[in-house]
């Protein structure tokens, strides 16, 4: 994401790339890993409910800038990379709950896997339910099994990718540009799902750094 960000930051649905910058990559990586590990260790050791809720809602009041500056350039299969994507997914949902709920519900209707069960959204999934899901997944990062939170995020992304693909098929003949946009979005959601799933596997073997 090469755009300049100003509070409050607005993301379009197709922005999943990392910031670009001229700083020392090694220093950026070190800071990203150290801050992610310190935050997670401290909060999970003493998950005070007020602290957890402030962290879940952090970007609502402060924008995404600080989180992005810390973690957006970390590799996807890393602790800071996973945390960045968790916050980004939640932000995208809260910026367009109607649209994301529509994509997710379509995916739920057509998918043939247990992903809707793993993700855990209330059915049928409307705007309120999709926002609740986003908060629950991020809250699980700090209070529950971190690998389960990653698995839920991965499942959400896979279901949404399926919804994007299904709706893209609907528009292919009449709105090819819209169909192409949705197909691209589906690919990004699928890629992000694979990254979350990989992080979950690494966490379970104490290898996520």
Low-confidence stretches: 1-21
Total DSSP E strands: 0
**Strand portion:** under 5%
How many separate structural domains? 1
SSE class: mainly alpha
Q: Specify the helix fraction band.
A: over 70%
Alpha plus pi helix count? 10
| Main sheet summary | none
Query: Mean pLDDT, nearest integer?
Result: 89
Taking the alpha carbons of the first and last residues, their distance comes to 23 Å
Shape: globular
- N-to-C series of helices and strands: HHHHHHHHHH
Structural Rg: 17 Å
List the helices and strands and how they pair.
Blueprint: H1 25-45, H2 49-56, H3 58-62, H4 65-71, H5 79-95, H6 97-110, H7 115-119, H8 127-143, H9 146-171, H10 176-204
What does this structure look like?
The chain is an all-alpha fold. It has one domain (23-209). It is built from ten helices and no strands. Helix 2 (49-56) crosses helix 8 (127-143) and helix 6 crosses helix 8. 38% of the residues are buried.
Question: TL;DR?
Answer:
The protein is 71% helix and 0% strand. It contains ten helices and no strands.
